[in-house]
Design brief:
Layout: H1 2-31, E1 47-49, E2 57-59, E3 62-81, E4 93-98, H2 105-108, E5 112-116, E6 119-123, H3 131-136, E7 138-145, H4 148-155, E8 162-174, E9 179-181, E10 195-205
Parallel strand pairs: 7-10
Antiparallel strand pairs: 1-3, 2-3, 3-4, 3-8, 4-7, 5-6, 8-9, 8-10
Length: 211
């Protein structure tokens, strides 16, 4: 009996290891970056304008106030999910996005890019473009999905993919006095320089439509 139970335990252990390996493999596969050819993949600047209405609404026990209509087509430079910080009640993911020269693989290969604590960081030993061009053509953006479908697409986005987002830049106010206010500029830096986007529509693709 001991031999049979021992064999059974060994088989269970082997299956458990195989299951963990499969999950790790799936996690790596889903999170891998998408390689892109050289060239600017998202040539247009984000489009911002007055909102159709400035009337606030309630979402997840927060008051959201529209500040501007917003649309962007960009390359995902990095994606980071958040579950436990205060903003995660509204925003489960941040996307660091690049457009213009910051959507070109020839430029991006000179950079190391990462996200943490709701910030986006970049560094380069040999700058292929000016610092002002990096600042004005990339940003960390906090995503507030307007629906579960949008949330799924945003949380599945990977570095290298192309996104087309439509929605609004907003101010969020919690009942506890906490607030989060979107930047309205693409050239600011430091605290408060990230966009807070109410995302009504999200398209994610591995290649631009014309490729």
């Amino acid at each position: 009996m001991d031999g049979w139970f021992g064999e059974l335990r060994e088989r269970k252990g082997t299956l458990a290891v195989a299951a963990v390996a499969a999950l790790l493999g799936l996690w790596w596969w889903e999170g891998r970056a998408v390689s892109q050819p050289a060239g600017i993949l998202a040539p247009e600047d984000p489009v911002q304008g007055p909102p159709e209405s400035r009337k606030p609404w309630t979402f997840h026990n927060h008051t959201l106030t529209p500040l501007a209509a917003f649309e962007i087509q960009a390359r995902v430079l990095s994606a980071e999910r958040y579950r436990f910080d205060r903003p995660a009640e509204l925003s489960p993911v941040d996307l660091a996005l690049g457009w213009g020269p910051m959507s070109d693989s020839r430029v991006l290969e000179a950079f190391t890019i990462e996200q943490r604590d709701r910030w986006y960081f970049w560094r380069s030993a040999h700058m292929p473009i000016s610092e002002s061009d990096v600042i004005s053509h990339s940003a960390n953006m906090h995503m507030i999905p307007a629906s579960e479908g949008v949330a799924r697409r945003l949380k599945a986005a990977r570095a290298g993919q192309l996104v087309h987002l439509k929605g609004m830049l907003v101010r969020a106010d919690g009942k506890d006095g906490w607030h989060w206010v979107s930047s309205l500029s693409r050239t600011d830096t430091g605290d408060g320089s990230c966009e807070v986007i109410w995302v009504e529509s999200a398209q994610v693709a591995d290649r631009p439509p014309d490729m």
